[in-house]
Amino acid sequence: GQSLEQPSEVTAVEGAIVQINCTYQTSGFYGLSWYQQHDGGAPTFLSYNALDGLEETGRFSSFLSRSDSYGYLLLQELQMKDSASYFCAVKKDSSYKLIFGSGTRLLVRP
Amino acid sequence: EAGVAQSPRYKIIEKRQSVAFWCNPISGHATLYWYQQILGQGPKLLIQFQNNGVVDDSQLPKDRFSAERLKGVDSTLKIQPAKLEDSAVYLCASSNHDGTGSYEQYFGPGTRLTVT
Fold this sequence. Notes:
Chain A is mainly β. In chain A, 0% of the residues lie in helices and 57% in strands. By secondary structure, chain B is mainly β.
């Protein structure tokens, strides 16, 4: 079987830092992706980690620990426009297909 | 660069009716995916095409769902007959794995299906 666990909701204040965790159990693992989805919108790609460590892209960073089957998305200097759902997704094999988690709804308050 | 196009954007049908969705991926993208996203959940892969061949359709309910990508470009997803539990957003995505290390999937705006 396979499962991905994420918190269902997170609330943070504008300008703050928030971390969204993802733990996974899958029969195969190539890497972990993160996608952002605004209400009524399409998912958009944020990051992909295949190796252990931190990847930084502007205000967003993503971390992976393969030994702990764990990753997180770090959002800094939060802005109101960051209010959205964030999904972690596992790439299980060489086919590029993704298994998505159920998502974390982030609410940024003024 | 034009994004992934999908139509229609919204569809309301009665149970037991049939419906079809259309997707045109980003030009040059060999891989095309159809996902089902039920409200409050993450996208669930239904089928993945590489050019006009099926790579994975293990989660496609084949008794009622079908999909094709005849010329390796655009694709259609059909449901016949529809059930109430098919109410969801149907997302199409495409990707191009040309050896540059990109793992990004590009999603279309989706078709919101309501089955009454």
